[in-house]
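Hypothesis: this fold can be encoded by more than one sequence.
Test: take the C-alpha cells below, design a sequence, compare later.
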C-alpha cells in the first residue's frame, strides 16, 4: 500500500486563520477523493490546523478516507522566533534559522506517529516538509 501525506500549512496566513480552508474544501479533498477512486488501496493522511479542521467538520466536509493530523496553529506560531510572513519567506528561500527549523520539524513530528513515513508528501504551501523527512 502506498501512503500519501498532504501538508496544509497550519500557520495563519495573512492574519486569517481560515485562509487555507478553501484550499482544503475546493482542491485537496476533491483531489484526495479522485486518488482514492483511482486506487482504493492508497493510504491518505493530511496535516492541517485545528481551526481549519473544526470548521470543515462544522460544514460537513467528509474525511472518510483520510486520517487527519491536527496541529494547534496558535501553539505552532508561538514557538517560532519570526512572524509568519518572515517564516514563509525564509522557508521558500531555504534560509530559515536552525532554531525555527527544529521547532517546525518537532511540531510536525509530534503530530504524527513516530513510525510513519509516507511514500509521497504533497505540500502546496512551502518546502517545510524537507527537513522533516
Amino acid at each position: 500500500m502506498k501512503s500519501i501525506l498532504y501538508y496544509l500549512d497550519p500557520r495563519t496566513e495573512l492574519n486569517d486563520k481560515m485562509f487555507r480552508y478553501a484550499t482544503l474544501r475546493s482542491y485537496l479533498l476533491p483531489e484526495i477523493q479522485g486518488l482514492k477512486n483511482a486506487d482504493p488501496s492508497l493510504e491518505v493522511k493530511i496535516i492541517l490546523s485545528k481551526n481549519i479542521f473544526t470548521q470543515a467538520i462544522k460544514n460537513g466536509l467528509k474525511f472518510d478516507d483520510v486520517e487527519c493530523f491536527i496541529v494547534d496553529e496558535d501553539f505552532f506560531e508561538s514557538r517560532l522566533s519570526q512572524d509568519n510572513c518572515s517564516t514563509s519567506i525564509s522557508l521558500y528561500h531555504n534560509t530559515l534559522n536552525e532554531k525555527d527549523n527544529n521547532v517546525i520539524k518537532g511540531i510536525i513530528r509530534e503530530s504524527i506517529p513516530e513510525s510513519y513515513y509516507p511514500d509521497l508528501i504533497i505540500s502546496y504551501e512551502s518546502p517545510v516538509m524537507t527537513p522533516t523527512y
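Residues 6 and 28 are 8 Å apart (CA to CA). Residues 21-38 form the longest helix (18 residues).
Hypothesis status: open.
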